[in-house]
Write a structure and sequence with these properties.
Elements: H1 2-37, H2 49-56, E1 76-86, E2 92-104, E3 109-122, H3 124-131, H4 133-136, E4 143-164, E5 168-187, E6 194-212, E7 215-231, E8 241-261
């Protein structure tokens, strides 16, 4: 009985020491969980479990990507001297000088006023016809733009940046501007041109390339539509109306934009 009891006691002791590592591991795990729940916020670690849950969610509307603007234009005025040319006139070449002002009450919306003066001349096609005028009398009946003034509503849906040769970042806006205004044009008449005006509506596509918060380079592609009264250039019916022509003018402008405001 003594030997048997000693053997039983020995087995019990061995079993006790064999269970100590497992019990210690369980106690450490419980303490770690308790410590994580009560861990102070200043221990340098950030709990991102909520972010992980939202990331793996099938749909989430709590997040949106916002780019801070390097160059803002909200509540700013701008003024832009511009130079341009007509790019789709079949009878004329020349230059257009203009001035455009803007006020942006937000980064996405603003108002625009524009004025330009055109200095156009006959292109080579008209000059070639003019050389035949003494024998054939050929000369196109048409008008030439002399100026424009109007207003527009700026909508700026795009603000972005681009890399130039992997060495510089340029920021730019892209705007769409429906416009209304008045175009002045000269009816071409051999005995003396006659000035007329026409209601004009259009759509401008504009890009601003920012170089500082006060300065940008501006490029405009302007499309304008109007009705033009065409008269006879020469002949027995000189100066008489030939037709009403629906005219589409496309102009390209480049300019320097200066920003004013807070």
């Amino acid at each position: 009985m003594g030997t048997r009891n000693a053997t039983m006691i020995g087995i019990a002791v061995i079993a006790f020491f064999a269970t100590l590592p497992a019990a210690h591991a369980q106690a450490k795990g419980a303490a770690a969980k308790k410590g994580a729940a009560a861990k102070p916020a200043d221990d340098g670690k950030v709990d991102i479990s909520d972010l992980e849950n939202k990331y793996w969610a099938p749909k989430d509307t709590d997040f949106s990507v916002v780019q801070n603007r390097t160059y803002a234009k909200e509540k700013k005025f701008t003024i832009t001297p511009q130079w341009g040319t007509l790019i789709n006139d079949p009878y004329s070449d020349g230059t257009i000088f203009g001035l455009t002002g803007n006020y942006f009450w937000s980064e996405r919306m603003g108002v625009q006023v524009s004025y330009y003066n055109a200095d156009l001349r006959n292109n080579n096609a008209v000059k070639d016809l003019a050389e035949l005028a003494t024998t054939t009398g050929a000369r196109p009946d048409h008008g030439k733009i002399t100026g424009y003034y109007g207003i527009g509503y700026n909508f700026v849906p795009f603000y972005a940046k681009m890399s130039v040769m992997s060495s510089k970042i340029i920021y730019f806006d892209m705007a769409f501007t429906p416009t209304i205004g008045m175009t002045t044009y000269d009816q071409q008449i051999e005995s003396g041109n006659k000035s007329k005006t026409a209601f004009t509506y259009g759509l401008d596509v504009t890009q601003f390339f920012f170089f500082s918060k006060w300065f940008a380079v501006r490029a405009d592609l302007r499309n304008q539509w109007r009705s033009e009264e065409v008269v006879k250039y020469r002949g027995t019916s000189i100066g008489r109306k030939v037709k009403d022509k629906f005219q589409h003018d496309t102009m390209f402008f480049i300019g320097a934009t200066f920003y004013f405001g807070t």
